[in-house]
Write a structure and sequence with these properties.
With 188 residues, the protein is mainly alpha-helical. It has one domain (3-187). It is 70% helix and 0% strand. The protein is built from eight helices and no strands. Helix 5 crosses helix 8.
């Protein structure tokens, strides 16, 4: 049985709410979750209080407590990316609650960029822009979550969303343009 088949079997067991299935599923994709969490943590300011393991464990708790009706591995990873996004936004809101309006650092949509000293407000601004993007086109928000928050490649995003690679490339360019414009408007 391949690893892909193992994941499908575990996903079905989780949907049936079999005891221990969720733990086994997370154990089998733990390296991918660590990679995903690391992708998020390295973008945070130095001295950030959430480390990779804390992000994975908190995401696990939220995933286990929420909707467990994932269709496939890609759907699960997309859900994990969304959970990690919300974790970071919640954490950023807590951090910046005492310093509203000050210290905003720009955030970039370049995949390999690292965050500035304190990007709490920028994370919140990105979240706000993503909500606006969802109103314009929910598919663009899904692509952005896959690319920016889940750290998926263009090919992995296409697979996770059931789209062609060319469509994802085209829509990713549209999404980045919209987000940059929306975040620039927030600055002004």
């Amino acid at each position: 049985m391949s690893e892909h088949d193992d994941i499908e079997v575990l996903l079905a067991a989780v949907r049936r709410r079999e005891q221990g299935a969720m733990d086994e599923l997370i154990r089998s994709i733990y390296p991918e979750l660590k990679r995903l969490a690391h992708f998020h943590v390295v973008r945070e300011r130095p001295g950030h209080t959430l480390n990779t393991t804390a992000v994975v464990h908190e995401a696990y708790l939220r995933l286990a407590a929420g909707n467990t009706r994932w269709n496939d591995r890609g759907h699960l990873l997309r859900a994990a990316g969304m959970v990690m996004r919300h974790l970071l936004v919640d954490h950023a809101r807590q951090r910046s609650s005492g310093k509203r309006g000050g210290g905003a650092a720009p955030i970039t949509l370049v995949e390999d960029a690292h965050a500035a000293d304190d990007d709490s407000l920028a994370v919140i601004a990105l979240d706000h822009a993503l909500k606006g993007l969802a109103e314009v086109d929910p598919r663009l928000e899904q692509i952005t979550e896959c690319r920016h928050f889940a750290g998926l490649s263009i090919d992995e995003t296409a697979e996770a969303l059931g789209m062609s690679v060319r469509s994802v490339e085209r829509e990713w360019r549209r999404a980045k343009g919209y987000l940059l414009q929306a975040m620039h408007a927030d600055d002004g």
